[in-house]
Amino acid sequence: MDFTIVDYYGPQKSKCGYCKGVQCSMGCGMHAYTMTPKDYQDLIDRGWRRSGHYCYKQDNTKTCCPHYTIKCDALNFKLSKSHKKIIKRMNRFLRDGKRGKNDEELNSSMTSEKPDGENMEVEMNNEGCGIRDVVEAPNVPLKNINLEAFAKANEKGKSNEKQPGVQKPKTNAMEIDKNSTQNNETPNNSKNSTDGANPPCKKAKQMRLERRLAKQAAKGLPAVIENKPSKSQEKSLKEFLNDAKPDDKHKLNFELIHVKSKEFFKTLPMTYALYKKYQTLIHKDPPNAEQEYLDFLQRSPLKLTKPSDGPPLGYGSFHQQYYLDDQLIAVAVIDILPYCVSSVYFFYDPDYSFLSLGTYSSLREIELVQDLASKVPALKYYYMGFYIHSCPKMRYKGKLSASYLLCPEAYTWHPLSDEIRLKLDANKYQRFNDDPLARDENEFEESDMDLVLLMIDQSSYVKYRQYRQIAGSDDHAAIVEYGKLVGKPLAHRMLYLKM
């Protein structure tokens, strides 16, 4: 049987990695000894995130920098001009090994953080200042539990209660892409000058056409405009990214490996060396020891599960390694969950900053979602962690089309529109659901207490009503708080450790 076992710590305060305030980042945390991918999917859909085994949820009404869960609908994602430019830069480099004329300047600017956040491509798809700097796990001794013994005991039917069933996924009608009809600006929308100053700029394509017509007129030739056949549809993200040719000078290859596989530990010396270089040159931080690196980016509570109707590699925690020829140049740390690919962290070789690897990796991860969705239709979202509007450096996450923010009260999804941005400009905490009567469908109430599952020893778990009779101490307030944060289905499904 698959279980999630958590040790709830309650309210936590820590240094904020965004505003750099001390003891002003406020939320609640818990340690996950083991967790099913389904349970973690439901947790992040309630505003939780993990850093190693530590799971945390910010209290947006009290914390200094409210954290809003953000996701992108990968099947409705549209490439922007800047995305296409970055992909073309990479493809050009792979083709002939040459850097563009502005790449050297870009390389130097990308390794410095500008206060206005204009050059934050290096941070695309990680937690900006580094997830480990945002919320730190409390220094609490872990309880000694034998997961294998517990699993074997419950497989033999020794547990007091059967694990409740898993609810079917819900669809949300709010998730229709409303952004596709916005921002359809054309050059004709620009203001016309009535005083003759600053005439509207012309597109390069229009200027080339005018020059060609002028040359034809100078030669006495009739003005002929070639009507090229229109393309039936624009190239897809996959076609843009995978434009490699056999004679390209460089080859970019990818390896997706599970964090507990032999391949991971075989490549550990390389990945750790790359991580140290990234931390030192990009974040200006002293590199972590190898064990801290493993705690942060390798160790995960997620169990590798391979259902017959799931993705080929299964659900769990993975590293996507980028190899330029035979050299490791980047690593994306991701979780593959029932409905999404969740980005955890990304680090790369600073020598290749001119390739905008942060943004490029996000596009590659969206492509991964699109590929997985062709096999598992429900797996169609790309989760980017948190959108922190009060920190200008973190607003880049909202630039991906078809992006949605999670309402921190009703837990419904809402398109990240200009209207929402204006509201966040006015007040950093917002309830995105405008319906005052809309409530959390999985709201936990006092009447749900009796069905909360508590793990009481190495072989069994009981419901809360039984625990009160056995222990004589109910921990009522802490369990109610926990239930409200994780929601009723998870409170009735996960095991709350009380050993």
Automatic annotation (TrEMBL):
Pfam families reported in the protein's UniProt record: ATE_C, ATE_N
GO function term, MF aspect, one: arginyl-tRNA--protein transferase activity
Q: Domain of life, per the record? A: Eukaryota
Record field: compositional bias (Polar residues)? 179-196
Keywords of this entry: Acyltransferase, Transferase, Ubl conjugation pathway
| Sequence ranges assigned to domain N-end aminoacyl transferase N-terminal in this UniProt record | 14-85
Enzyme Commission code(s) on record:
2.3.2.8
Instruction: State if Oxidoreductase is listed as a keyword.
Output: no
Q: Which InterPro entries match?
A: Acyl_CoA_acyltransferase, Arg-tRNA-P_Trfase_1_euk, N-end_Aminoacyl_Trfase, N-end_Aminoacyl_Trfase_C, N-end_Aminoacyl_Trfase_N
Q: What does this protein do?
A: Involved in the post-translational conjugation of arginine to the N-terminal aspartate or glutamate of a protein. This arginylation is required for degradation of the protein via the ubiquitin pathway.
The protein depicted here goes by the name Arginyl-tRNA--protein transferase 1
Q: Which organism is it from?
A: Stomoxys calcitrans (Stable fly)
